[in-house]
Design a protein that fits this description.
- 2 copies of one chain form a homodimer.
- In chain A, about 40% of the residues lie in helices and about 15% in strands.
- In chain A, strand 8 (about 255-260), helix 11 (about 265-275) and strand 9 (about 285) form a beta-alpha-beta unit.
- Chain A has helices at about 20-25, 30-40, 45-60, 65-70, 85-100, 115-125, 145-150, 175-190, 205-220, 235-250, 265-275, 310-325, and strands spanning about 75-80, 105-110, 135, 155-160, 170-175, 195-200, 225-230, 255-260, 285, 305, 335-340, 340-345.
- In chain A, the strands form 3 sheets. A 6-stranded parallel β-sheet of chain A has the order 2-1-3-4-5-11, sandwiched between helices.
- The longest helix of chain A is centred in the C-terminal third of the chain and has 17 residues, at about 310-325.
- By secondary structure, chain A is an alpha/beta fold.
- The first copy, chain A, folds into 3 domains: about 5-60, 434 Repressor (Amino-terminal Domain) (Orthogonal Bundle); about 70-175 and about 310-340, Rossmann fold, CATH 3.40.50; about 175-305 and about 345-350, Rossmann fold, CATH 3.40.50.
- The interface between A and B is large, with 65 and 66 residues.
- Strand 2 of chain A pairs antiparallel with strand 2 of chain B, so a sheet runs across the interface.
- The structure holds a DNA duplex (16 and 16 nucleotides).
Chain lengths: ~350, ~350
DNA sequence: TTGTAGGCGTTATCAC
DNA sequence: GTGATAACGCCTACAA
């Protein structure tokens, strides 16, 4: 593409002021303008005033790119989400941005759609941005990703799930165990035929982890875990179909409790139960995951687990800030912040034997 | 290494390889390595192989920061959201990231929480990143922000709402009008006592815009618009309270239709109606906004408007890419892409006079 | 408090 | 096809 026919063409972007323009207008050197932004107290009162006026007038904004290159440390925190469109990650992102706002750090986001390979790709891209810190949302990276991460000399925080023995800081809760929590909740009530319902879309590895936790707990209690995979892509449909199948079974064969991998599926079941001639929780106890906004309002109100989404995002950002502020000499070990994933017991999970 | 001839400590970040390291290992000059990444066809086959091996081995990743500075064009698209935690913006973000992924552009996100001032601040920060393009999600910026935008010589797209006479490209739908659409839907059915219910939190200016559209339509039809502001911060509670108040009124005084500013509020009303002794839509017709996942599953199923969230994000990104690819000489006018905000008529809005 | 020199890692330009 | 050189806009180190 024919770009420039100018002879001594400057590579400068047209129209963008630089620190030198400001300096020239103020009759000072560039470094003074730099100080005005980075260490105002080192600039005399009068000059500060003058610079402020000029900067406001021409609308100069310092280049983060040049600054980052020169100083060797950018002002970006990079975060890889697994599914940006879900409320889970929305909560995380909000927690992070809220916490980072005051620090002047920018959040650079990528979406990995629960794929390890996409995550690796995102990490690779991020490395090129010289991130100030990295926030990830899984703990099982590809070997290549893990290698890049070890090579990076910046704070790395894994947010959401926590697991033992990881070489990075972590903020969240033990995701696998939450599956056991729900199993336990029903076992305590004397239920024995308990079923875990997975979404048809196998991409969400977190649901699988919970299913694993469920299975372990069931085995520990001496029962065979029954895990079912939904037939419908739409989560509400999946739940509705599930409860309809249950209604079609002989009462003695029915599951006494259904643990859905998400509140959406559970809601599908609850909202459809009446049409199937079922009364919940009498005919079947129900639990979900995620504490969706509607969970408490369903009839019956849905028992579910509430992961501290926003708080995890916030704490991940705080951990990053703390690590950045910390004396690099003071080698801290790996931080592991546990945030609650609370079991909210509501009407839907009352077992009727 | 050629660079250590300086007496001073290198400002280089420890451990990070540079293009020169790769070049030295391969016995070529830095520019060749640069070409390997940016124009591989200009590098001989053998060299390419050799470079690939070295790069893989040491895990070199080019610095986006340095590259952006040198080339004058970064690889970031900056987007300012109004409420990252809402499904609306989650959909937008997903649409944008999906569309941008292949292009090698990174999405830099900020959250303005429906505040003009925070938006201005975000734009100011973004300007420092030399964005390749900017995506905004409102069309009423502060004067300072507007000035910065005009000064920026990059594609700017306003996504979500569209309005006439704006100096930027737009993708979305006329938000104000959607309020009228719902009014019309009820007026057509012969309802006259129609009420619009706003959330208690006044930060969402979009709800206000829809309320305005509602009011205009009502006046046009010769009726006094009745707009009510919810008393509860929680949207479900607000809706529930609303329907309870309605139940307490004499039948002749009751609104015949309630237009809630969000599906959450509408759901609160629907889920609570039975407890109030009401049967919907017989006792009151209901409509919401947003087409939440649960909307179609409520009993009665909720009539609502479905903004094309994902598609708007996607189209905003596509518009950006198209503008970037376009010959800058070919001065295109302002693009305005209209995407549907469809009225989904379901059971809840059947008016019983 | 202010200024000078040089470098951060890459790419544009032009030469070979 | 490959290389030398000089930017890009700012900041660190050191000097005055």
């Amino acid at each position: 593409m024919t770009r420039s026919n100018s002879l001594r063409a400057s590579r400068r972007k047209a129209g963008a002021y630089t620190i030198h323009d400001v300096a020239a207008l103020a009759g000072v050197s560039a470094i003074t303008v730099s100080r005005y932004f980075n260490a105002p107290e080192k600039v005399s009162e009068g000059l500060r005033e003058k610079l402020r006026e000029i900067i406001d007038r021409i609308g100069y904004v310092p280049s983060q790119v040049a600054g980052g290159l020169a100083s060797g440390h950018g002002r970006v925190v990079c975060a890889v989400m697994q599914n940006i469109a879900s409320s889970t990650f929305a909560g995380l992102v909000k927690g992070m941005t809220d916490e980072l706002r005051a620090s002047g750090l920018q959040l650079l986001l990528a979406n990995a759609q629960y794929s390890r390979e996409l995550e690796e790709q995102a990490i690779r891209t991020f490395v090129g941005w010289h991130p100030t810190a990295l926030i990830l949302t899984r703990d099982d990276h590809t070997p290549a990703a893990e290698a890049m991460l070890r090579g990076l000399n910046v704070p790395i925080v894994e947010a959401w799930g926590v697991a033992k023995g990881r070489p990075f800081h972590q903020v969240g809760f033990p995701n696998v165990e939450t599956g056991g929590t729900l199993a336990e909740h029903f076992l305590e009530q004397g239920a024995t035929r308990i079923q875990f319902v997975m979404p048809s879309n196998p991409e969400d590895f977190r649901a699988e982890q919970r299913a694993r936790g469920f299975a372990e707990q069931m085995k520990r209690a001496g029962f065979t875990p029954h895990i079912q995979v939904a037939q419908h892509d739409d989560e509400f449909d999946a739940g509705a179909f599930c409860i309809a199948s249950l209604a079609a079974q002989a009462k003695s064969a029915r599951a006494q409790a259904l643990i859905f991998a998400s509140d959406n599926m559970a809601a599908g079941a609850i909202l459809h139960a009446e049409e199937c001639g079922l009364s919940l929780p009498r005919d079947c106890a129900i639990a979900g995951f995620g504490d969706a906004a509607f969970a408490a309002r369903l009839k019956p109100a849905l028992t579910t687990l509430r992961p501290a989404r926003y708080e995890i995002g916030q704490q991940a950002a705080r951990t990053v800030l703390a690590l950045l502020a910390a004396d690099p000499a003071a080698k801290v070990g790996m931080i592991q912040e546990l945030l609650p994933c609370e079991l909210l017991v509501r009407e839907s999970s009352l077992v009727h034997l």
